[in-house]
Design a protein that fits this description.
- The structure holds two protein chains of two kinds.
- Chain A is α+β, with helices and mostly antiparallel strands.
- Chain A contains 15 helices and 23 strands.
- In chain A, the strands form six sheets. Chain A has a seven-stranded mixed sheet with strand order 15-14-20-19-18-16-17. In chain A, strands 2-1-5-3-4 form a five-stranded mixed sheet, with helices on both faces. Chain A has a three-stranded antiparallel sheet with strand order 6-7-10.
- The longest helix of chain A has 19 residues, at 300-318.
- By secondary structure, chain B is α/β, with parallel strands linked by helices.
- Helix content of chain B is 44%, strand content 13%.
- In chain B, the strands form four sheets. Chain B has a five-stranded mixed sheet. In chain B, strands 2-1-3-4 form a four-stranded mixed sheet, with helices on one face.
- The longest helix of chain B has 18 residues, at 514-531.
- Classes of the chains: A alpha+beta, B alpha/beta.
- The interface between A and B is large, with 44 and 44 residues.
C-alpha cells in the first residue's frame, strides 16, 4: 500500500493511502474527539464531533470519514475547529439529563471528558429536556437509560455486525429516535456486555456494577481472563480505596483490553463475570486435614511436613503407580512445571490427568469462546502432558480406583465427585489418601483428607499459554485470600519436604528455569509484552 | 390476536411485493403500506410476519415501521382524514379546520372515533399548497378544507359513501404570452392520454433522441444549461457525465425519477405528473438512453396516490405502444420528507429508513443496490423532450446565464391565485407574483420565501429586486430550491412562520446526525416558548447561535436548512421576535 505524507497540527504524519485522518492523527498522538467512530465498528459519521479544518476545503470536515491525501494540511485545533467541536459537545448535551452524580459512567464518560477538554460552556438551554425511558432492563447484564443516550449507534452496530444477534435498533425518528429492544427480543447473547464498554456515555450500564462504587476509586490491573482457552486480555478492576463499597468485595469489574492478536476489542459475558468468583464465600482460606472425621486447620509448614511424610510412606508401601494426580488446564505454566517436578520427576505418580473432561467443557463459537474452559491447556501440552507424559481419563481412573489399583488421589482445581456422579462415594471409600487442592470448596473438599487452598488467578503473577500458543501474563491484582497460595508454591513446598530441590520463592525464577528446561518455552522471558508472545 | 394475520389474498399480495423489484427488500415499504391499510396499524406480529417473509432482520423492519409517518403502532381509524398544517395551509386556516374536526368527531387528534371509523390528523405537508388548507382522505387529496367540506366528508364516511372531491383544475398558469415548454399544453384536459399527447408531438423527441449516440445526447443536455429542478440546481448534463461507462463497470445502471416532492410550498411535480404524465415518461426514456440505463424507477411520495395511478396508466399505454423498451417500476414512499434527498430516497427504495448516505461515492457511481444510479427530478426529466425537440441552444437561450429554459413555479400563501406558473429562468419575482394576481386581498407584501420553506426568506424589498434563476437568487442570499414561492402579507407573524417551518424540519429530521436532530429540536422549542409568551432576552441570540452551529455540519442539507431559515428570519424580521421577549 502506498504511503502518503500529510500534516496534522503542524506535525508531519505518514499514513497508508486510504487511511482515515482520525486514525492518522491518533498514530501521531493527536486525539480528535469522537463518539460514533470505533475502529472495530466503522465510521457512520453521525455524531459530527470530529470536525477538523482542512486547508483548501470550503467547510469543516469530519475526520472519521476523511481519507488522507498526500500533502493534506489538517488543523484539529484551529479556532474554527475548536469552536465547532465545542458546539457539537453542547448539542450532545441539549437533551442530556446531566445526572452525573447518580450515573455510574461518571469518571469514564466521554460527555464529561469532552466537555472538560473541548467545551466548558455554560448551558444556554432554557427549555424542558426531552424525557425518555430511564430504567430499561435490556437483558440480564445491561440496563438502558435512553435519556443519556446520544444515538452514536455503536451498540446497534456491534449487535448487527459482530454478534449478528440484532437485539437493538434505532427506532422512531428524529429527536424521538431512541435505542430500544427489537420487539420480542432480550439482550442476552453471550457477548452482550460489550455494548456497555462501547457506550461512550452512561446510557448502557452493567447491572452488576450499578451503584456499587465510583470508578475513580478503582485500580485497574492489565491481566488475562482464565475462563477459557482463548485467554482474552482484560483489565481486572479492584476496589482498594472504598472497602465498604461494593458489598465489601475486592474485585468489582472486568473490562476488555484491546489485543488484536487474541480478542480484538471484546470479551464474553462469562469472562466479564469471572471477577465474582474471586471473593466468593466458597473460597478456601486455610490448609486443613481430616482427623478422626473432624477437619482441623493447620499451618502450611505442618501440612507440608505431614502430607509429605504420608505420601512418602504410601509410595514406599503401595508403590507410586497407585498415586493418581488430576491436574488442570486452569493451572499456570509455572504451576504445571512445579507439578511435573513433584509428581512426575520426584514421586513418579502412576496416573496423570490434565485434559478437560465434562467438568471443563463449554460452548464454543466463532467469535471468542473456546470449548475448553481452561486457560492453559496448550501450556500443559507444551510441557509434555498428554504426549511424553501419558494421561489417563476420568473413566479409566474411576475404574482403577474402584478396582483398588489406585490408593491415592490428588485433585487440583477439579472435583472427581462432580464427574463420577453416583459412583463417586464408593470410589472415595477405596482411597487411602485424598487431597483437594483448590480455589473453591466443592463436594470433594468435604470428603478429602487434605485440603490445600490455592490462590486465584487474580492473586498472582503467572503465565498462561492460550490455544494459539500465545504466552500471556496474568498480573497480581490482589493479595491471596487468607492463607491461600499459588499452586506452584504448594507443589514446591511438598517437594522440599520430600527432600527435593525447590529454591524458588517467586514465579519469575520458576519461569526462568522452565524456559531453560522446557524446549517449547525456550527464549521467553517472564516480562511479556502486553499482547503476549508466541511459543 | 386470534386467527391468521392475513387472508390468503393478502398473503399473496405481500409475497408479490418480494418479487416485484430487482431486490426483494425493495418491496418492503409498500408491503408495510398494505398492512397498515388492512389493519389500521402495524402490530408486532405483523412486522414479524413481514420480516420472515422478506428474510430481513426484525430490527430493520421495525426501524422502517417506526420511521415513516404513514405507519402507526396504535390503531388509526379505518379512514384517515388529514389536514395540512404547514405554512401556506396554516395561513389559510388549518388550525380552525382541525378544531372543527375535533368538535365534530369528539376525539383528540390521532385517536380513532369510538367506532374505529375515522381518525384525523394535522400533517406536515400534502404537496397541495394550491388547495390550502389542503385536505386528504385516505391519501386522496379532496380539496381546500372548509367547515362545510369537512362536514360533507365526515357524513360521507359515516354513510359509507366515497368522500367528495373538490379539486380545482391545476391550471391556469399565468399570462398566455411567454414560452411554456410544459404547461403550454395544459389547456387540453385529456393530455394524460397517449393519443392526445402524441397529437402535441409527443414522443417525437424520443424518436429523435434515439437516433443520437448517448454521448451526443449527454453533450446536448449539457449545452442546454438544464439544471436540477428538484431543489439542488445541479447541472443535469454534468451529473450524467459522472456515470461510469458500462465498459468500465458491468453493474446495471438505474434511472430514478424523484417524484417525492415534499418541500412545503412546492407542488408543481404533482400537477405536472397529473396533467402530463407522458412528458415524464418520454423524458425518462430519453434520459435512460443517454445514460444507458437498464431500468427506470419512478418514486412518488406516499401522498401522491392519484398521481401514481395516472403515471402507471400512462406507462402501461406507452409500453403497449412500444415506446418504453426498458422496465419501468412505479414505487411509492411512506410520507417522509427526507426521502426526497437523493441518497435517502435510495435508502427508502432499498427498504430502509430514509437516513441519507454520505457521499462519496455519489449515486451516479454507487447508488441503488450499489450500482450506478442517476436520480433526476420529475420536472427536470420532463424538460428533456423540449431540449431534444427545440435544441440545446434554444433552450439555454430561454433562460439566463447558467440556468437554461423555464421553470414551473408553485405559488401559494397570501396570494390571490395560488397555482403553478411557468416562466423563463431569470424572470423577476414581481412578474411571477403579478401573474398570480398579487398579494391576497390587496394587502401589503411582507416577505416571500422563494424556493419552498427550506430556503431563506426574502423581505418585500429583496423580493421586489429578485430574479428567479439559480444564480441570481443565490446572490440575493437565498435559493431557488424547487421554485415554491410562499407569499406572506403584512399580517404574517414571522416568529409564527418560523415556528411552523422549524416544526416541520424538526418533524422531518431523520435523527441520524446530532446537529440536525438536536439543533432542530432546540430551535423549535425556543420558538414555541417565544410564541407562548415566555420569551427571554437570550432567545434571539440563541436562535442565531444554534443556526450558525448547525449550518455546514450535518450529513445532508436538511441541517443547513434548519440553520439558514432561522438565521434569515431572525436577521430580517428582528422586531417580530424582539416584541415577544420579556425581562
Amino acid at each position: 500500500m502506498a504511503e502518503v505524507k500529510l500534516t496534522i497540527d503542524g506535525i508531519s504524519v505518514n499514513a497508508h493511502e486510504g487511511a482515515l485522518v482520525i486514525d492518522a492523527a491518533r498514530s501521531a498522538g493527536i486525539h480528535i474527539p469522537h463518539y460514533c467512530y470505533h475502529p472495530a465498528l466503522g465510521n457512520p459519521g453521525v455524531c459530527r464531533l470530529c470536525l477538523v479544518e482542512v486547508e483548501g476545503a470550503p467547510k469543516l470536515q469530519v475526520a472519521c470519514r476523511l481519507p488522507v491525501k498526500d500533502g493534506m494540511v489538517v488543523k484539529t485545533r484551529s479556532e474554527a475547529a475548536k469552536k465547532a467541536q465545542a458546539f457539537s459537545v453542547e448539542l450532545h448535551l441539549v437533551d442530556h439529563p446531566l445526572d452525573c452524580p447518580v450515573c455510574d459512567q461518571a469518571g469514564e464518560c466521554l460527555l464529561q471528558d469532552y466537555y472538560q477538554r473541548h467545551a466548558l460552556h455554560s448551558s444556554s438551554v432554557r427549555e424542558d429536556k426531552l424525557h425518555k425511558p430511564k430504567r430499561v432492563e435490556l437483558g440480564p447484564n445491561v440496563m438502558l437509560d435512553a435519556e443519556r443516550c446520544i444515538l452514536c449507534t455503536r451498540c446497534v452496530r456491534f449487535l448487527d455486525e459482530i454478534t449478528g444477534t440484532r437485539e437493538l435498533g434505532v427506532f422512531q425518528r428524529g429527536e424521538e429516535g431512541e435505542i430500544a429492544l427489537t420487539p420480542g427480543k432480550r439482550l442476552d447473547n453471550p457477548y452482550a456486555g460489550n455494548v456497555v464498554d462501547l457506550c461512550p456515555v452512561g446510557a448502557l450500564t452493567e447491572r452488576d456494577f450499578r451503584f456499587q462504587v465510583r470508578v475513580w476509586y478503582l485500580k485497574s490491573t492489565p491481566t488475562l481472563c482464565t475462563g477459557c482457552a482463548r485467554g482474552c486480555s482484560i483489565l481486572l478492576q479492584t476496589n482498594p480505596e472504598r472497602r465498604w463499597h461494593a458489598g465489601g468485595r475486592r474485585a468489582v469489574r472486568i473490562k476488555p483490553r484491546v489485543n488484536s492478536s487474541v480478542n480484538g476489542w471484546w470479551i464474553c459475558d462469562e469472562g466479564r463475570a469471572s471477577w465474582k468468583a474471586v471473593d466468593a464465600p466458597s473460597r478456601l482460606k486455610t490448609p486443613s486435614w481430616l482427623k478422626s472425621g473432624k477437619a482441623g486447620a493447620m499451618a502450611w509448614e505442618d501440612a507440608e511436613k505431614l502430607l509429605a511424610a504420608e505420601l512418602a510412606e504410601l509410595c514406599r508401601v503401595r508403590g507410586p503407580e497407585g498415586l493418581a494426580v488430576v491436574l488442570s488446564g486452569t493451572l499456570s505454566n509455572e504451576d504445571l512445571y512445579a507439578a511435573k517436578k513433584l509428581f512426575v520427576e520426584r514421586l513418579r505418580a502412576g496416573r496423570l490427568l490434565v485434559k478437560p473432561g465434562p467438568d471443563q467443557l463449554g460452548e464454543e463459537d466463532g467469535l471468542l469462546r473456546r470449548q475448553a474452559r481452561v486457560p492453559n491447556l496448550r501450556g500443559a501440552q507444551a510441557l509434555g502432558f498428554g504426549a511424553a507424559l501419558k494421561e489417563c481419563s476420568w473413566d479409566s481412573l474411576l475404574e482403577d480406583v474402584l478396582s483398588g489399583k489406585v490408593w491415592g488421589l490428588w485433585a487440583v482445581g477439579r472435583d472427581p465427585l462432580a464427574v463420577w456422579g453416583e459412583k463417586g462415594p464408593a470410589a472415595l471409600s477405596k482411597l487411602e489418601l485424598t487431597v483437594h487442592q483448590a480455589v473453591h470448596a466443592s463436594a470433594f473438599t468435604q470428603a478429602a483428607r487434605w485440603v490445600l487452598p490455592s490462590a486465584s488467578w487474580a492473586e498472582q503473577d503467572a503465565t498462561f499459554t492460550n490455544f494459539q500458543g500465545r504466552v500471556q501474563r496474568a498480573r497480581k491484582a490482589l493479595e491471596p485470600l487468607g492463607a491461600s497460595r499459588p499452586d506452584w508454591r504448594i507443589f514446591g513446598g511438598i517437594l522440599r519436604s520430600l527432600g527435593g530441590a525447590w529454591p524458588h520463592e517467586s514465579p519469575e525464577p520458576v519461569f526462568a528455569e522452565l524456559s531453560l528446561k522446557e524446549p517449547a518455552f525456550a527464549g521467553l522471558g517472564f516480562e511479556l509484552p502486553p499482547e503476549g508472545a508466541s511459543l | 390476536m386470534s386467527g391468521p394475520l392475513f387472508t390468503p389474498e393478502q398473503e399473496a399480495a405481500l409475497k408479490a411485493w418480494t418479487q416485484r423489484y430487482p431486490d426483494p427488500a425493495m418491496g418492503l415499504v409498500e408491503a408495510l403500506r398494505d398492512v397498515q391499510r388492512w389493519h389500521g396499524r402495524l402490530s408486532p406480529e405483523a412486522e414479524d410476519w413481514v420480516a420472515v417473509l422478506f428474510k430481513l432482520p426484525l430490527n430493520r423492519v421495525h426501524g422502517v415501521a417506526t420511521f415513516y409517518p404513514f405507519f402507526t403502532a396504535k390503531p388509526a381509524g379505518k379512514h384517515r382524514v388529514c389536514v395540512c398544517r404547514n405554512l401556506s395551509c396554516h395561513r389559510a386556516g388549518s388550525p380552525r379546520m382541525l378544531e372543527h374536526l375535533r368538535k365534530r368527531l369528539g376525539v383528540p387528534e390521532g385517536e380513532p372515533t369510538p367506532d374505529q371509523l375515522i381518525s384525523y390528523q394535522g400533517v406536515e405537508c400534502l404537496g397541495a399548497c394550491d388547495h390550502a388548507p389542503a385536505l386528504s382522505v385516505d391519501d386522496e387529496l379532496v380539496g381546500a378544507a372548509s367547515e362545510e367540506l369537512l362536514d360533507e366528508v365526515v357524513d360521507a364516511l359515516k354513510a359509507g359513501t366515497p368522500p367528495p372531491s373538490r379539486l380545482r383544475p391545476s391550471a391556469p398558469t399565468g399570462p398566455a404570452e411567454g414560452p411554456k415548454l410544459l404547461t403550454g399544453r395544459f389547456s387540453e384536459p385529456e393530455l394524460h392520454r397517449l393519443e392526445v399527447y402524441r397529437r402535441f408531438g409527443g414522443y417525437s423527441a424520443l424518436e429523435k433522441a434515439l437516433r443520437l449516440a448517448p454521448a451526443d445526447l449527454r453533450a446536448e443536455v449539457k449545452r442546454s444549461n438544464l439544471r436540477g429542478l428538484g431543489g439542488a440546481g445541479f447541472p443535469t448534463g454534468m451529473k450524467w457525465e459522472t456515470v461510469p461507462s458500462k465498459s468500465q463497470r458491468q453493474a446495471p445502471h438505474w434511472l430514478v425519477a424523484n417524484a417525492d416532492e415534499s418541500e412545503p410550498g412546492c407542488f408543481k411535480d404533482r400537477v405536472l405528473m397529473e396533467r402530463d404524465p407522458h412528458a415524464l415518461l418520454e423524458g425518462l426514456a430519453i434520459a435512460a438512453h443517454a445514460i444507458d440505463a437498464d431500468g427506470i424507477f419512478i418514486f412518488l411520495r406516499g401522498e401522491y396516490a392519484r398521481q401514481k395511478r395516472i403515471v402507471e396508466a400512462a406507462a402501461a399505454q406507452a409500453r403497449e405502444a412500444g415506446l418504453l423498451t426498458r422496465d419501468v417500476w412505479v414505487m411509492q414512499g411512506a410520507n417522509a420528507y427526507i426521502s426526497g434527498c437523493d441518497t435517502a430516497l435510495l435508502e427508502t427504495m432499498e427498504g430502509r429508513k430514509a437516513w441519507p448516505r454520505q457521499p462519496p461515492p455519489f449515486p451516479t457511481v454507487s447508488g441503488l443496490l450499489g450500482a450506478p444510479t442517476v436520480v433526476n427530478n420529475v420536472e427536470t426529466l420532463m424538460m428533456l423532450p423540449a431540449i431534444v425537440r427545440e435544441g440545446a441552444e434554444a433552450f439555454a437561450k430561454l433562460g439566463v446565464g447558467r440556468s437554461g429554459g423555464t421553470f414551473v413555479f408553485s405559488l401559494s400563501g397570501d396570494v390571490e391565485k395560488p397555482g403553478v406558473y411557468e416562466f423563463p429562468m431569470g424572470t423577476p419575482l414581481s412578474d411571477i407574483l403579478r401573474a398570480a394576481g398579487g398579494v391576497r386581498g390587496g394587502r401589503k407584501l411582507k416577505a416571500v420565501i422563494p424556493g419552498g420553506t427550506s430556503t431563506p426568506v426574502l423581505t418585500a424589498e429583496e423580493a421586489a429586486a429578485a430574479r428567479m434563476d439559480f444564480d441570481s437568487i443565490r446572490s440575493a442570499g437565498s435559493f431557488l430550491g424547487a421554485g415554491g414561492l410562499i407569499v406572506l402579507d403584512e399580517t404574517a407573524d414571522m416568529a409564527e412562520a418560523l415556528f411552523i417551518i422549524e416544526r416541520f424540519l424538526w418533524h422531518e429530521s431523520c435523527g441520524q446526525c446530532t446537529p440536525c436532530r438536536e439543533g432542530s429540536g432546540w430551535t423549535k422549542r425556543i420558538l414555541r416558548r417565544l410564541l407562548e409568551g415566555d420569551g427571554i432576552p437570550e432567545d434571539v441570540g440563541n436562535l442565531r447561535r444554534v443556526a450558525e452551529g448547525v449550518i455546514g455540519r450535518t450529513i445532508c442539507a436538511l441541517g443547513d436548512t434548519v440553520g439558514m431559515v432561522a438565521k434569515a428570519m431572525v436577521d430580517k424580521f428582528p422586531e417580530d421576535f424582539q416584541r415577544r421577549v420579556h425581562g
